[in-house]
Amino acid sequence: MVESVPDMRENIVAEMKTYVSEDKGNVCEELQSPYYEEPIIQFAAGNDPLFEEYKRVVGPDHATPQEAFERSFGMGSFDGGTVISVVLPISETIRKANRAQKDRASREWALLRTFGDEYFVQSARRHLAGYLTGLGYRAVAPLDTDWYSIHGAEGGPISNWSERHIAYAAGLGTFSINDGFITEKGIAIRLLSVVTDLKVPPDARISSATGHTGNCLLCSKGICGVCITRCPVQAISKDGGHDKIACMNFVYGQASRDFAVLNGGEAKSGAGCGLCQTKVPCESRNPMRTAR
Q1: Confidence band of 292 (pLDDT split at 50, 70, 90)
Q2: 122-134 and 5-22 helices cross at what angle (nearest 10)?
Q3: DSSP string spanning 140-175?
Q4: CA quadruple 283, 279, 250, 106: dihedral positive or negative?
Q5: What is the distance between the alpha carbons of residues 98 and 247, in angstroms, rounded to a whole number?
Q6: To pair with 141 at 20 to 30 A between CA atoms, which of 93, 100, 130, 149?
Q7: Which residue has the higher pLDDT, 2 or 167?
Q8: How far apart are CA 290 and CA 292, in angstroms?
Q9: What would you measure as the largest C-alpha separation in the chain, in angstroms?
Q10: How far apart are CA 188 and CA 116, in angstroms?
């Protein structure tokens, strides 16, 4: 029996919620806590014109869903489909530990960087792609392909498949002054996405009147700016936004790598930072819901 399109949406959502809830890779035994709480899953149309616009907004090398799909399955293989975007909210245990920090990430956040970000998020991407393949659809997680890359630019590193921009296309939230992504479950999150030839109705995006920074209190209402004061290297400012180079040098610098190893993580991941994502009004919610 062929499932209806609405059933497929519901089944994908249920599958990913179950995976995040039950997979052992999402549990840090040392912290007795999951890395991530229940995810939010939404869908964007593979032919949404916004993806072409990203070649101007993000960079000319940013792939469209069609390009991402055809790089794996061959030219002409994509006849429409869907991009599935998943929000993984960072757990309360890890967020709480990071709130207390002022100069660098907490030990808990460092463990998240290695075992939550590097291992579990990758595992979740592959699980979603494999789940769709098992149902008879073709699917690819762009970040797991050999063409995915991050290259340097004058303003800082640029990805050819930005998970934040994919999430925006799927209606999952908006950007912040610090370049983070504010969802209904806040900014302390991780994102993943998969492109598939399965066709399902897309989710609605935030209205153009609200804009691409609509959930950020500072951008929308001129109030807040807590993330600016939380940044240990002054990489965020009201007028200049996010200094990606200063941020990158701190997050992936030698001191960060050493701290990661000292606390049981891996040097290549660094310890991260996350101070601008914790102890801020948008940490675990959309602050505009109470500001309106």
Answers
A1: low
A2: 140
A3: E-GGGSTT--EE--TTS-EESS-HHHHHHHTTSEEE
A4: negative
A5: 17
A6: 93
A7: 167
A8: 6
A9: 57
A10: 13
Please check whether residue 35 is in contact with residue 26, taking contact to mean a CB–CB distance below 8 angstroms. yes
Q: Do the Cβ atoms of 192 and 125 come closer than 8 Å?
A: yes
CB 89 within 8 A of CB 269: no
The residue among 236, 33, 229 whose CA lies nearest residue 115 is: 33
Give me 74's structure tokens.
């061959």
Average pLDDT value for residue range 43-53: 98
Q: How confident is the model over 140-196, as pLDDT tens digits?
A: 999 999 999 998 877 788 999 999 999 999 999 999 999 999 999 999 999 999 999
Q: What tokens appear for 198 in the block?
A: 């399965």
Distance (Å, rounded) from C-alpha 235 to C-alpha 196? Answer: 37
Q: Which tokens is 257 given? A: 């790598």
Q: Are 172 and 87 in contact (CB under 8 A)?
A: yes
Closest CA to 19 of 172, 129, 141: 129
Q: How far apart are CA 176 and CA 107, in angstroms?
A: 25
Per-residue pLDDT band at 3 (split at 50, 70, 90) = very low
pLDDT over 70 percentage in the chain: 96
Strand partners, 89: 189
Work out the average pLDDT over 130-137: 97
Burial class (CB in 10 A: 0-12, 13-18, 19+), 171: middle
